[in-house]
Amino acid sequence: MQDQIRILKQQALNDLQQVDNTESLPGWFRDYLGKKGAVTALLKQLGTVAAEERPQVGKAINDLKTELQDSFDSLQERLRQQKMEKEIASDSIDVTLPGRPFPTGHLHLTTQTLRKIYQIFAEMGFQVYEAPDVETDAYNFQALNIPEYHPARDMWDTFWVNKEVVLRTHTSPGQIRAMKEFGPEPIRVILPGKCYRYEQITPRSEHQFYQVEGLVLGHKIRMTDLIGVMNEFARKMYGSERKTRIRGSYFPFTEPSIEIDMDCILCAGEGCRVCKYTSWLEVAGAGMVHPVVLKNGGYDPDVWSGFAFGMGVERPAMLKHGIRDIRYFYGNNLQFLQQF
Ligand code: FA5
Fold it and tell me: Is the CB of 310 under 6 A from ligand 1?
């Protein structure tokens, strides 16, 4: 057996010496080290060797295997190197060519819109306050003057985690959290974040979307302060020529409640499909903070007053950029996202 091993080694190394290109390497490997190769065949014969010689012969075969593998590896490396050098020598490389640009990402349209909103309100002295996405029924509804079984709950279709925990349907519960954290002191915050509603997805409505809430509390804060802030916002966000108007509305947590509209940015008041030929676009729901909400947040309504507002983020961005369907925002289609 030892002789057989010696002869095989000689033969394998001789054959390997004849290999002078990378294409012939697999053939040599198959003949000697492959599953059906000569070395594997020797290993299979080990069982026929006398038991006392078996360890020695086994070791000799393994040594042969290692030696052949090492010789094969170094030849393979050498041939590859030679091949590459040949290719480089035959190709003319223009080292002055600029490299291919590496594709980089950029901020999502929602993030860009949010940052613009932060910037505008920061200039008016608002801080950003973040509240949790997963809320209790108590914060999302009850503290906002929406008791259990109140018909106003129909305004917010809800994902329930369990009987007491919901995915927040709006950013308004953050009002109570901010009041409890800062109060009773003056407050001027915006509360951005994701909201969740169990509702049908349509070109205008997603089941996850962003809102930015605003809350201002102090002494003698009036409706005119709210209107002034919203006017300033509309002009900074959509252009200094924007006009706004106020309509009466209803929210359980504000009294009185209003909707703020601005003249349509697309048709400048002429009437178009986007503004449904009304010439006006909705900017935000708002109102003076309801006394019950003030009390729930730890503020005495006889001493403190304030206003709150809430606006979407995707819908205003849709208006600004003429986007027809809200589903594009989170569809991960780069062709859409790269436009902004
Ligand atoms: C509210 O959620 C009130 N919390 C707003 C508020 C805050 C009023 C403070 C008074 C004081 P509303 O349900 O209308 O209101 O939602 C506000 C905005 O969120 C809408 O104008 C819209 O821009 C956006 N929005 C609501 N539902 C969706 C949806 N399914 N998809 C995308 N945007 C939505």
Answer: yes
